[in-house]
């Protein structure tokens, strides 16, 4: 946890005020968050299903990333009725659902341009 008046915190707050894109990117940044959101959208609503789908993620990291997504109201945790012990599922909020086409567009962009695939210079904006 950073100090409130640290240079990093002050710079982060400034960037968030300058452009909402910075806030949006911070909300979904993290190695696994976009994959988790997309996996939930594909029907992997339970912790064990997410772990099975994302084989290289540790349970600790999956748990913390889910908590962060919940904090940002991208997902909600819901109890599954009539299960013992109580079953939990993760559901995308409207905010999370609105993120899916954006993630798909970023994925398409990555397929075209990531890893130096496209190196021609475009017009300067």
From TrEMBL:
Residues 19-118 form the HTH hxlR-type domain. PROSITE patterns: HTH_HXLR. The keyword Transcription regulation applies. It comes from the Bacteria. It holds the Pfam family HxlR. One of its GO terms (molecular function) is DNA binding. Keywords: DNA-binding, Transcription, Transcription regulation. This is Transcriptional regulator, HxlR family.
């Amino acid at each position: 946890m950073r100090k409130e008046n640290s240079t990093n915190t002050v710079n982060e707050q400034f960037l968030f005020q300058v452009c909402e894109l910075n806030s949006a990117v911070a909300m979904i940044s993290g190695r696994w968050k976009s994959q988790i959101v997309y996996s939930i959208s594909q029907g992997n609503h339970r912790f064990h299903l997410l772990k099975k789908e994302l084989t290289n993620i540790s349970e600790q990291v999956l748990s913390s990333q889910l908590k962060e997504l919940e904090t940002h109201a991208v997902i909600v945790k819901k109890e599954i009725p009539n299960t013992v012990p109580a079953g939990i599922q993760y559901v995308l909020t409207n905010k999370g659902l609105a993120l899916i086409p954006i993630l798909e567009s970023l994925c398409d962009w990555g397929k075209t341009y990531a890893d130096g695939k496209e190196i021609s210079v475009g017009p300067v904006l």
